[in-house]
């Protein structure tokens, strides 16, 4: 709002002087400041107004109008500027670092907006000795004795009490209709808006790219979707939360990249540049950016242009690998999916070469559209496992490790090897599968979509095999709760077992390790399981982390003989539950010689897989188990 309009509004609001002849403010009940020079008081008031010292300007105008304030000074100056402090307003967040000379000009540009703002906040990073900003009481200011660089102002913006926030670089002067332009754009293009947009032209780097907005080759006449924006941001405050769902790859740069990346990944929120018509700069988000931003303190100069670009290349590459779907991601590439998590799959295997190959082929056939890496651990198979990576071209990387057989009682050590190997891995999702399961069609797409749809910031894991434990409490005595999501229902179960998906917070909560499982576990019950799933469930439940169970199995298990716990499996078969079972459920395992004979289903649980030698092998395993148990019982009594 121009000062002339402000002055007119003040005059219409003010009341006559009090009986004592002085001008009073109702909020402090004492005469207002009368120390200003008596000469050109209107010019003095305008100078105060232009510097954002609205209360003082209102006081001075009231004094010289022979009036008494009928409300607080704060309310007066808000009304005079057409502002209201409510949920629909706009909070401006300015940035202070090494350009104090631009601050007053920015405040004047904000005052002149056709849509008045409700609040102005200033975040000041430490800019070095001798860099001083004018103190403006009416602007909420946070001064930091450290340079937290670019991300800090977005954290500060979370304190705004309005629906909208507008964040500005310190070299940005908006046109007087910029906020009007943004609000109009949001009616048709809800998302993050900005004045300087970038469309990425590479899936591995920040450059090459196309600029859109005030700094484009030709200013855009219409709204344009871009990958990220900078210089001046405008959005609903609620969007800011997504920025903190994932730690930035770098705190030194790239806050603009991180904001648009996380908003799209976690909230499905896109980024746009409002119209910047060449014949009307009043709508522009930055009217003098080239002149103000090309000085000696600009970040791209001080950080060395080459190192600045290398870091931004790295930030973009990391974001895309972690699931950022950019505007021009090539069709058919892993970057074209709306939800494209990178996933790391753990598979322990023992004496099941055919089943392992079947599973790897299914993963390979389900991998397009995702960045999949696999770690197979051979737990001392009688015939050493060999994997030819060329058989699985859609899997980005396959690692194979080996050890002597850990078996059931030392299974926790095997899981430790997996978890510790993931300390430096940062995929979107992890999967832990057994070598004898099969995937449903669309496994990665269905599981990732379901995971992202669960509205729980404390979720860490989801069990993917629905079996006879459906509807029952398990280990943590938590009665399951059905949760509806946009991708279907899930159970909040508060337990998981070793057929699950999880994120990195799961591993961090467990400190990347399984605690040793005591041999005493099996003295009274030799058929007890490994204890790993039970331990994980208890530890995470105690930390109040959320664990879920699918309501329709995403893995298919058809009661194959167990090589770890054969006697228990014989007594209590594990068969996956599918709501509408069909032979079409299975992911393609093309490329594998048939290891199974499929016969018609005798129940509603889908096809039954029969192994010609399964009964003989099972009997032999039971005999060996009984011998081991007898030996352990004798040893226990001797102790």
Cα shape: elongated
- How much of the sequence lies in strands comes to 15-25%
Count of individual domains: 3
Give the mean pLDDT: 79
Low-confidence stretches: 15-38, 67-76, 332-339, 592-617, 631-639
Q: Rounded to an integer, what's the Rg over CA atoms?
A: 32 Å
Distance between the termini: 89 Å
CATH class call of the largest domain: Alpha Beta
Task: Tell me about this structure.
- Strand 18 (481-485) and strand 19 (488-492) form a beta hairpin.
- The radius of gyration is 32 Å and the shape is elongated.
- The model is unreliable at 15-38, 67-76, 332-339, 592-617 and 631-639 (pLDDT under 50).
- The chain folds into three domains: 3-80, no CATH class; 90-318, Alpha-Beta Complex (Spore Coat Polysaccharide Biosynthesis Protein SpsA, Chain A), CATH 3.90.550; 342-610, Spore Coat Polysaccharide Biosynthesis Protein SpsA, Chain A (Alpha-Beta Complex), CATH 3.90.550.
- The chain is 29% helix and 18% strand.
- Strands 3, 4, 5, 6, 7, 8, 9, 10 and 11 form a nine-stranded mixed sheet that branches. A nine-stranded mixed sheet has the order 14-13-12-15-20-17-21-19-18. Strands 1-2 form a two-stranded antiparallel sheet.
- With 639 residues, the chain is of the alpha/beta class.
- Helix 1 (3-13) crosses helix 4 (73-80) and helix 2 packs antiparallel against helix 3.
- It contains 18 helices and 24 strands.
